[in-house]
């Protein structure tokens, strides 16, 4: 009992202190830039619990999911192909390094030229940025396949597709998940950026609109939604990773205990 | 009696034994492997010629660096020889053949850690297209044969080293090969477990009627396990000697190892390996 | 496009854009570095502080820096402070988390040995904590460096602070597509140079370390 109380205390302690400081400072001297906590909660409910959920939040989330899914699938596919082939790896490495270092927002003008103000601009923006961690980590994971595992596969006649599906991919999966973990925040960031620049609806778009109209509490409520969304994505990822890589985590625990 | 046994000559010859075609399961002819490195060419294996018969265990022993693993990999189709050929059941080996299974030394790296024990044993059957019901039967049978019927749902890394190697053996026998290749499989396992595993190999061979080619550096193990011991020279490798082990077919760790004949055979193998280590080579002495 | 690229290299404007970009990037990164190292070591060495800040850290960490763009615009407008706000926020978390991991990896035996030799807290930090933490710190710095560049350019594109991003935006709205592509190429090269520089630094400073650590799984 005491332990759970202590745990709870630690988890809530600092946040409560910070919120209190915020509350006190804004109540005493109303600040144009920062709403009071009750104001923020009220605005949050007013603005986002309702049609805005379908009209703005949903399209943003869907675009994010689409972009991330494409980035992950393409990244893994290309990563496997390149990772298995030494010549391809050597050829593509400098090219990849260049494109990976290019800040995706820089390509917004190019995308606008290609796709105009459609959903594809936003989705492609996400893909262009989020694919790199997945691709590069997959290449690395595939390249580092254990030689004894590979010999075993070959000696049992496990070739081609089968070998990729049953040996290469599972052994690379911890590395691939690291790539996905890095890709998701990038995708989220690019979703927001693409909406600030080139959208007619969406979460990022709305927040921007609020700011332009100087609707401050609304703006903050939008930022809060974005924050909650990011946290949700992180939590969901951790949940999925924990399940898919359960064998890996248990193996590591065993090794660390030894 | 004892006197007679000691006086009985050893059935040995200083080149690889070949058999009549109808008795031959696996045939190695003039195997040669040269590695090309930046520092020059390394001739690992110069000329290996021998036949494996049906339903027998043959051990390959040699000093370190005698190309044992190279030879095994060439036979297994994992490595391409520079010249010479390997023929299994009348068909030349160009890639890993279906009727052959390999048990590697590093069981920790050979078993797939993301699969449970039963799934590991099942995998080669799955990719070979064996229907589900038959797969399950073969897996259960193989696990029973190696004494692991009770842990199909465990992960390999949850088991001890000896048990993991049993899983690897189960996987090999579920594959229903004609030849089982084992590359120093018990080198990384403690002595007591090794004794149990050696008996397991003899049991498996007897129950399934397969041939086993067993590479080892442990001389006692080679004599205990085999019907035939092929001793390899130092690099570049040729057959130093091919010895028939005429111990009784029923063997056990306690009694067999205390037989005078065992000691005699073991002594001979040891001598030969020592000669090999010193660089004595049969192709210098024998005119063929 | 390539001839255009070579031409703009000769314009003074181009180099001042590069300079402005690097200024925001470097300043933001530097401030974040100092703050993250100090806070990281202080919090990392105290189990109490670690537990107390854990929930807050896990909550704030996933929030993308760009969420704050509207706020930055409101507070500072198209000045370097907006860029700095975004860059510092994002870079801080990257480095901070890595420093925490680094401090957690400190060998307790080494610390106790230090204490038994009469080393004060500061000395122990210098001689035991710092070397252990260095590989992690440099990983975090490398990651933060590329994030910082992305944010610097983004702020310039969207808020209009001076720099390459602004130049690209102007070229685009002015219909000068060749210039725009040339500038994009330049930005990419800048990113590559920064990335190579970070890796080079990592290798030099960690030449004593047997392996340069990859990013640690969260």
Question: Mind explaining what this structure looks like?
Answer:
- The complex is a heterotrimer of chains A (258), B (288) and C (218).
- Chain A has 258 residues and is mainly α.
- Chain A is built from eleven helices and no strands.
- The mean pLDDT of chain A is 87.
- Chain B has eleven helices and eleven strands.
- In chain B, a hairpin with a 2-residue loop joins β2 and β3 (40-53).
- Chain B is globular, with a radius of gyration of 19 Å.
- The relative contact order of chain B is 0.18.
- Chain C has one domain (18-205): MetI-like (MetI-like fold), CATH 1.10.3720.
- In chain C, α2 packs across α3 (47-60).
- Chain C starts with a helix and ends in a 13-residue tail after the last helix.
Q: What is the chain-wise order of helices and strands of chain B?
A: HEEEEHEEEHHHHEHEHEEHHH
Give the total of domains of chain B. Answer: 1
Give the strand content of chain A.
Answer: under 5%
Structural Rg of chain A: 23 Å
Name some characteristics of this structure:
heterotrimer; A: 258 residues; mainly alpha; 85% helix; 0% strand; C: 218 residues; 80% helix; elongated; disordered C terminus
Walk me through the topology.
The complex is a heterotrimer of chains A (258), B (288) and C (218).
Chain A: H1 2-28, H2 37-48, H3 51-84, H4 86-101, H5 108-115, H6 119-143, H7 147-155, H8 160-197, H9 203-212, H10 216-244, H11 246-257
Helix pairs in contact in A: 2-10, 3-4, 3-6, 3-8, 3-9, 4-6, 5-6, 6-8, 8-9, 8-10, 9-10
Chain B: H1 2-7, E1 12-13, E2 24-37, E3 40-53, E4 57-61, H2 68-75, E5 83-88, E6 91-92, E7 100-103, H3 107-110, H4 117-127, H5 132-145, H6 161-174, E8 179-183, H7 191-208, E9 211-216, H8 219-225, E10 228-232, E11 237-244, H9 253-256, H10 260-278, H11 282-285
Parallel strand pairs in B: 3-11, 4-9, 4-10, 7-8, 8-9
Antiparallel strand pairs in B: 1-11, 2-3, 2-5, 5-6, 10-11
Helix pairs in contact in B: 4-5, 4-6, 5-6, 6-7, 8-10
Chain C: H1 2-8, H2 12-45, H3 47-60, H4 69-76, H5 80-104, H6 108-116, H7 121-158, H8 164-173, H9 177-205
Helix pairs in contact in C: 1-9, 2-3, 2-5, 2-7, 2-8, 4-5, 5-7, 6-7, 7-8, 7-9, 8-9
């Amino acid at each position: 009992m005491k332990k759970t109380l202590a745990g709870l205390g630690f988890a809530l302690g600092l946040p409560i202190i910070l919120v209190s400081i915020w509350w006190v400072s804004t109540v005493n001297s109303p600040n144009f830039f920062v709403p009071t906590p009750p104001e923020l909660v009220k605005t949050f409910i007013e603005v986002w619990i309702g049609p805005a959920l379908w009209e703005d939040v949903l399209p943003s989330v869907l675009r994010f999911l689409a972009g991330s899914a494409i980035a992950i699938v393409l990244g893994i596919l290309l990563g496997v192909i390149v990772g298995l082939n030494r010549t391809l790896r050597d050829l593509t490495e400098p090219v990849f390094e260049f494109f990976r270092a290019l800040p995706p927002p820089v390509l917004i003008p190019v995308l606008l030229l290609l796709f105009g103000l459609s959903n594809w601009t936003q989705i492609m923006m996400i893909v262009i940025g989020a694919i790199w961690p997945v691709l590069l980590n997959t290449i690395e994971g595939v390249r580092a396949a254990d030689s004894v595992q590979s010999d075993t596969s070959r000696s049992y006649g496990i070739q081609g597709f089968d070998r990729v599906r049953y040996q290469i991919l599972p052994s690379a999966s911890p590395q691939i998940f690291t790539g996905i973990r890095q890709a998701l925040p990038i995708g989220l960031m690019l979703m927001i950026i693409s909406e600030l620049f080139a959208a007619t609806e969406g979460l990022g778009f709305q927040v921007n609109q609020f700011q332009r109209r100087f609707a401050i509490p609304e703006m903050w409520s939008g930022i809060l939604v974005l924050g909650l969304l990011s946290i949700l994505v992180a939590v969901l990822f951790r949940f999925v990773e924990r399940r898919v890589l359960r064998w890996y985590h248990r193996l590591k625990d065993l090794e660390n205990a030894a | 009696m004892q006197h007679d046994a000691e006086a009985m000559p050893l059935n040995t010859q200083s080149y690889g034994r070949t058999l009549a075609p109808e008795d031959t399961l696996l045939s190695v002819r003039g195997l040669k492997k040269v590695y090309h490195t930046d520092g020059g060419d390394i001739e690992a294996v110069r000329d290996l010629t021998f036949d494996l018969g049906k339903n027998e265990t043959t051990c390959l022993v040699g000093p370190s660096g005698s190309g044992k693993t190279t030879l095994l990999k060439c036979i297994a189709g994992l490595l391409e020889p520079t010249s010479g050929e390997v023929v299994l059941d009348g068909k030349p080996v160009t890639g890993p053949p279906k009727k052959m299974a390999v048990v590697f030394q590093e069981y920790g790296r050979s078993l797939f850690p993301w699969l449970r024990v039963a799934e590991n044993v099942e995998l080669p059957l799955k990719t070979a297209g064996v229907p589900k019901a038959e797969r399950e039967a073969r897996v259960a049978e193989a696990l029973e044969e190696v004494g692991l019927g009770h842990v199909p749902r465990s992960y390999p890394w949850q088991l001890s080293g000896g048990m993991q190697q049993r899983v690897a053996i189960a996987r090999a026998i579920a594959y229903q090969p004609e030849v089982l290749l084992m590359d120093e499989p018990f080198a990384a396992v403690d002595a007591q477990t090794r004794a149990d595993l050696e008996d397991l190999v003899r049991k498996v061979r007897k129950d399934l009627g397969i041939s086993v080619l067993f590479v080892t550096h442990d001389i006692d193990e080679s004599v205990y396990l085999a019907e035939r011991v092929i001793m390899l020279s130092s690099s570049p490798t040729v057959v130093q000697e091919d010895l028939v082990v005429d111990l009784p077919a029923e063997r056990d760790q306690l009694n067999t190892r205390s037989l005078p004949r065992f000691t005699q055979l073991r002594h001979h193998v040891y001598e030969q390996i020592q000669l090999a280590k010193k660089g004595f080579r049969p192709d210098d002495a024998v005119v063929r | 496009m390539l001839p255009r690229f070579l031409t703009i290299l000769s314009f003074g404007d181009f180099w001042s854009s590069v300079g402005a970009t690097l200024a925001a990037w470097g300043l933001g990164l530097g401030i974040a570095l100092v703050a993250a190292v100090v806070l990281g070591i202080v919090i990392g060495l105290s189990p109490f502080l670690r537990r107390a800040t854990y929930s807050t850290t896990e909550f704030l960490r996933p929030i993308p820096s760009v969420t704050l763009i509207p706020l930055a615009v409101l507070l500072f407008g198209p000045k370097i402070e907006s860029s700095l706000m975004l860059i510092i926020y994002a870079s801080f978390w990257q480095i901070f988390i890595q420093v925490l991991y680094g401090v957690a990896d400190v060998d307790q035996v080494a610390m106790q040995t230090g204490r038994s030799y009469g080393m004060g807290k500061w000395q122990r930090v210098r001689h035991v904590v710092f070397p252990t933490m260095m590989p992690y710190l440099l990983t975090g710095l490398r990651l933060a460096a590329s994030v910082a560049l992305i944010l610097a350019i983004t702020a310039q594109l969207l808020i209009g602070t001076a720099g390459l991003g602004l130049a690209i935006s102007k070229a685009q709205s002015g219909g000068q597509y060749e210039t725009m592509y040339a500038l994009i190429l330049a930005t990419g090269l800048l990113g590559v140079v920064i990335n190579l520089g970070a890796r080079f630094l990592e290798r030099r400073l960690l030449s004593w370390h047997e392996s340069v650590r990859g990013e640690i799984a969260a």
